[in-house]
What we know:
CATH topology: Rossmann fold
Oligomer: single chain
Bound molecules: nicotinamide-adenine-dinucleotide
Strand order of the largest sheet: 3-2-1-4-5-6-10
Distance between the termini: 58 Å
Helix content: 25-40%
Structural class: alpha/beta
Order of helices and strands: EHEEHEHEHEEHEEHEE
Number of strands: 11
CATH architecture: 3-Layer(aba) Sandwich
Largest sheet: 7 strands, parallel
Strand content: 15-25%
Number of helices: 6
Mean pLDDT: 92
Low-confidence stretches: none
Shape: globular
CATH class: Alpha Beta
Amino acid sequence: xxxxxxxxxxxxxxxxxxxxxxxxxxxxxxxxxxxxxxxxxxxxxxxxxxxxxxxxxxxxxxxxxxxxxxxxxxxxxxxxxxxxxxxxxxxxxxxxxxxxxxxxxxxxxxxxxxxxxxxxxxxxxxxxxxxxxxxxxxxxxxxxxxxxxxxxxxxxxxxxxxxxxxxxxxxxxxxxxxxxxxxxxxxxxxxxxxxxxxxxxxxxxxxxxxxxxxxxxxxxxxxxxxxxxxxxxxxxxxxxxxxxx
Length: 245
Ligand code: NAD
């Protein structure tokens, strides 16, 4: 007989990254056993097992997913790279590979970190709900592949097969150790390049504190059960009011 993986054993794909590491730390606090799967190892933490590998490599994933019941997928190439082939390989083909590996390994739940940009058509959105359609003209290759990635993960939700999925859509994430958002803003300001305004100065942008994004992921994971209405759905996540920019 096959032993069902323990529900407190999880893997964080992309766990060496900014969001991933915060998620790993909170999961440990909450008594989870955590494995990280990433192409790099950026820290060490007692209780965390690191598996180095590319998520496009199913064999490497299968080794890391042994006895894992819950997978957080928060790996992606950096949006700034604008490398179409890399986004397609990692976010689309790679996500298909992750889903296959999860099915083969007997994983029961997958929580995807998607992005609010999947519904952004270039004009401000206030109080945007999850029933907004996907952007027909995504703003960049990164977003184009985040849309395909989210569709794949949500479509894979199958109660009969025992795989449940959900997606969380943050926009900008800030917090300790943020490698991109705030450092890039500060650097741009220091170089004197923030002295002009794009638009009329009332464009909206949304930022969420990293702990809130982590909280949303863990709530989603813990609520994901066969009878739950969140199965196969995507959720926007934010702090409160969007910031005028
Ligand atoms: P990050 O770059 O800090 O972390 C991503 C991690 O993924 C890195 O550790 C990287 O090594 C890993 N990775 C990349 N390619 C991989 C591959 N082929 N195989 C295995 N691991 C791989 O990024 P982040 O800001 O922590 O973003 C995490 C997730 O959140 C991403 O899915 C991103 O699209 C999403 N997101 C981020 C923001 C933000 O503002 N930071 C906003 C919305 C959505």
